[in-house]
């Protein structure tokens, strides 16, 4: 399984995450923050997939976006209530 998706596929996966998973991206980031201290992207993607029943494509996209935003210090906007 490749560790990264093309930018186009990555963007499509991210756009579908709320409808497909029932969680917003910021909620997945909170889950990753509270999850086990795994350092490898693939290990964290497997953990998400196993614990939350995600496909590995969605789990990998979530982990990659989490890492990308942490490196660039870009916050995830939370939806308005």
UniProtKB/TrEMBL annotation:
<dbReference type="Pfam" id="PF14117">
    <property type="entry name" value="DUF4287"/>
</dbReference>
<dbReference type="InterPro" id="IPR025629">
    <property type="entry name" value="DUF4287"/>
</dbReference>
<protein>
    <submittedName>
        <fullName>DUF4287 domain-containing protein</fullName>
    </submittedName>
</protein>
